[in-house]
Amino acid sequence: MELVKPSIGLIFWMIVSFSIILFLLKKFAWKPILGMIKEREESIENALASAEKAKLEMKALQSSNERILAEARSERDALLKDAREIREKMISEAKNAANKEGERMLAAARENIQIEKNKAIADLKNQVASLSIEIAEKILRSELSSDEKQKTLVNTLLKDVNLN
After folding, report:
1. What is the DSSP string of 7-61?
2. CA 95, CA 99: separation in Å to the nearest integer?
3. Spacing of C-alpha 24 from chain mean position
4. Tens digit of pLDDT for each residue in 83-112?
């Protein structure tokens, strides 16, 4: 039961030894321990500050990246729009050129048709004239084959001349 009821001497020596250990700890170990704890706290605070700063930088970079991405998208959209407009313009110009070329070709074809038609008409007129001359020649030969028919024709022509 001595441990349950310590004597005064034991309590005294425990207080003395505790005080000496406390004094030695305070004198030699307490300041370095507190300094290390303070240094550790500062390093933790610096790490937290750095983490916060990095977090803010990441947010700034993220917003910058989003802004750059939005600009790139708008630039891409503008380029696509320009490309579409250029394509439409090229298609329109090609259609207009094709229409003009088609109209020119049609006009040339019509002109060639008209020229060929005029040539055909002239040829036909020449053939009709040749045929008419041949027919008239044959009729005149048959009508003027005798002297009697020639005299009758001359008299008829003279009567027509007097009438006019």
Report:
1. -HHHHHHHHHHHHHHHHHIIIIIIHHHHHHHHHHHHHHHHHHHHHHHHHHHHHHH
2. 6
3. 84
4. 999 999 999 999 999 999 999 999 999 999
